[in-house]
Design a protein that fits this description.
The protein is mainly alpha-helical. It has one helix and no strands. The protein is flat and about 105 Å long. The chain starts with 49 loop residues before the first helix and ends with a helix.
């Protein structure tokens, strides 16, 4: 029925290889299916004790505090950089104005 065909590419010397014709296979022996593997039992739900729930809540709170601290410090660094650049711009503007007046 549908058999794959291998494309033929001519070589730089001009020699063309003929397409390979697959031979039909008539003698096929049946293969036995392997034995099915044993089925693992379903997963059980995670049960939290009051101590583990408290530890989980404390760990989550600590993560929130650390991430919040990092984000606030990055925002503060950006704000300080912006203020310092603005001050430098004002000082440079005043210096350029003084140089143009010839003082």
């Amino acid at each position: 029925m549908l058999q794959p065909r291998i494309p033929v590419n001519p070589l730089p010397t001009g020699i063309i290889t003929p397409p390979i014709q697959p031979t039909p296979v008539t003698d096929v022996e049946p293969v036995q299916a392997p034995a099915s593997a044993p089925v693992a039992p379903g997963r059980t739900a995670v049960q939290l004790t009051p101590g583990s729930a408290l530890a989980l809540a404390a760990g989550g709170g600590a993560v929130v505090l650390v991430v919040g601290t990092v984000l606030v410090s990055m925002l503060l660094a950006v704000a300080i950089t912006g203020v310092s650049v603005a001050l430098i711009a004002v000082v440079l503007r005043l210096l350029v104005r003084d140089m143009q007046k010839g003082r």
